[in-house]
Amino acid sequence: MTKFADLMTRLRLKVREAQLPPELEAKTSSMLEEAERLGAGSLATLPYFEQIANYVEWVTSLPWNKTTVDQLDLAQAQEILNHNHYGLQPVKDRILEYLAVLKLQTDKQDNENKLMRAPILCFVGLVGTGKTTLASSIAQAMGRRFTRIPFGGMSDALELRGQSRVRPDAEVGLVMKALKFCGSRNPVLLLDEIDRVAESARGDIMGVLVELLDPEQNAAFTDHYLDFPFDLSQVLFVATANNTTNIATAVLDRLEPIQMPSYTDNEKIQIGKTYVFPKILKEAGLADRQLIITDPVWPNLVRPLGFDAGIRSLERTLNGVCRKVARLIVEGKTQSVTITPENVKEFLPNW
User: Fold this and answer.
1) Residue 307: count of CB within 10 angstroms of its CB
2) pTM given for the model
3) Residue 174 to residue 151: CA distance in whole angstroms
4) 153 φψ region: left (φ > 0), alpha (ψ -120 to 50), beta (else)
5) What local confidence, expressed as pLDDT, does residue 109 receive?
6) Cα–Cα–Cα angle for 79, 135, 132, nearest 5°?
7) What is the spatial distance between Cα 108 and Cα 347, in angstroms, rounded to a whole number?
8) Looking at the domain 74-259, which fold is it?
9) If phi over 0 gives left and psi between -120 and 50 gives alpha, with beta otherwise, what is residue 33?
10) Can you give the residue ranges of the AAA+ ATPase domain (predicted)?
11) 291-293 and 337-339 strand pairing
């Protein structure tokens, strides 16, 4: 059997096993028949065979019928939120209310298994206040897969919607890529920093966002590369933004903004001790007893250069401290370090 015949057999098998919508299955089968008829057993006589093969590979890799089962247990969700995030009780309450609505709607869904829509959450706040990690916690609480699409600096709406296959550099859009990565048609999809798109493309990108977030439209979202509608109605969209000034009114109308509060110094100390420090200690390869930070030192760590709404500066400071201690241990100068007010300046990064 020739290499061409082997490829055709493999692609036909993928089409049969992918459980595609009937119209799409007929379309891909027709494309493969045409490729085989014109190919005449030789790849050299079919310059566009690679494009056809790539198209078939893409449509058969998408989760047309694959879903995960939701776990809408509010007690478990609250435990996960409390484990992953300190404070933020008003925000957590809104998330739990949101999950409660989804549970009630799921319990009353019709025989077609069509889930009604709860409002789409949009976390608005300064950098480092936990917007992205909250979205990840929602996915963890629901037992759904999680992925994100970064909007920062996005300069072309085609990055979301894909490019037509008539273009030589045609590519699938980020939405379909995210679904392929998740392997599920009902993931939690984070639209990250939707206010930071390039000014020149803001109108076009906001137009695609309206289609993504509108339940009347996203049930038949069409990627230009695939040229076939995909049902996004089961995707749980979550958005983040630093502020709402640069978000189109039509998009805001489909979101429920939740303001993320700034952390106080006391809250940062608790977050640093309980969440950030153990994580960074592990990433640096240090054991718990190899680096001890005494309580009087923490106020110096949370505000080395002035007030910061989030915890990014605290993370950078703790990373710098761990690196200095790791070097001392590797060089054999010590086996453990206890940081006190007397020696803290030796370990703080120099700005």
Assistant:
1) 11
2) 0.83
3) 10
4) left
5) 59
6) 115
7) 58
8) Rossmann fold (3.40.50)
9) alpha
10) 117-265
11) parallel
* β-sheet bridge partners, residue 238: 190
Find all residues with CB under 8 Å of 247, minimum gap 6, and list them.
Answer: 194, 195, 206, 241, 255
Whether residue 244 contacts residue 286, with contact meaning beta carbons closer than 8 Å, is answered with no
Instruction: Give the number of other Cβ atoms within 10 Å of residue 60's Cβ.
Output: 20
The tokens of 146 are what? Answer: 């999680």
Question: What is the pLDDT, as a whole number, of residue 326?
Answer: 92
Q: What is the mean pLDDT of each run of 10 residues along the chain (351 residues)?
A: 72 84 88 73 59 87 90 89 85 86 72 55 86 90 92 92 86 94 92 92 92 88 92 91 91 90 84 89 88 89 68 86 91 89 82 52
- At residue 92, the pLDDT reads 87
- The per-residue pLDDT for 151 is 94
What are the residues whose beta carbons fall under 8 Å from the beta carbon of 308, sequence distance 6 or more? 128, 314
- In 3D space, the residue among 237, 257, 238, 262 whose CA is nearest the CA of residue 247 turns out to be 257
Q: What is the pLDDT of residue 247?
A: 93
Q: Which fold has domain 265-346?
A: Helicase, Ruva Protein; domain 3 (1.10.8)
Q: Which of 21, 246, 235, 300 is nearest to 124 (CA)?
A: 246
Handedness of CA 306, 309, 315, 318 (dihedral sign): positive
